[in-house]
Design goal:
mainly beta; disordered N terminus; globular; 58% strand; 12% helix; 10-stranded antiparallel barrel
């Protein structure tokens, strides 16, 4: 009986041992071209978007527009793979967080959508070259389709 009890304890302890499982995040890996500092200068202001890798499944981004020395727009973004889905979570100062989910993905383009959001309902990033991307936000405003395009160039190191 004593040996039987000892065997049960050993089997129990062995089954509790955690295995080191390597996880892959293929959806977010396809967007590794997001990483880095991006910018665009225009008459309306200077647009900046900076992306950093937080973990294998998460990138953090910040977007802002400067006009002179004033920040006229600022938002924080988390790009996060959860299970088999990729989410674009936007947080604008003073507003609730808004979630967009991946609806289209290729090597050079990703589209996130949230049809319940007022504007935008769609966010698309397109890789033009290693140092050039275009971000487009689109949706309806007062019943009319509207889109805004942000061409950006990668800051040279």
């Amino acid at each position: 009986m004593k040996n039987y009890f000892l065997l049960i304890i050993i089997l129990f302890l062995h089954s509790c041992k955690t295995k080191n499982i390597e996880r892959h995040f293929p959806l977010i890996e396809k967007t590794s071209w997001f990483l880095g500092e991006w910018r665009n200068q225009s008459k309306k202001g200077d647009f900046y978007e900076n992306w950093k890798k937080v973990s294998d499944s998460t990138f953090a981004g910040v977007s802002y527009i400067m006009k002179g020395n004033d920040t006229i727009f600022n938002e924080n973004v988390l790009l996060e793979q959860r299970n088999d889905s990729l989410f674009y979570d936007v947080s604008v100062n003073g507003q609730d967080e808004t979630y967009f989910y991946l609806t289209k993905s290729s090597k050079k383009e990703v589209t996130f959508e949230n049809p319940k959001h007022d504007f935008p309902t769609k966010i698309t990033y397109k890789l033009i070259s290693q140092d050039s991307i275009i971000a487009t936000i689109s949706g309806k405003i007062k019943g009319k389709e509207k889109s805004v395009t942000y061409p950006m160039h990668k800051k040279k190191k």
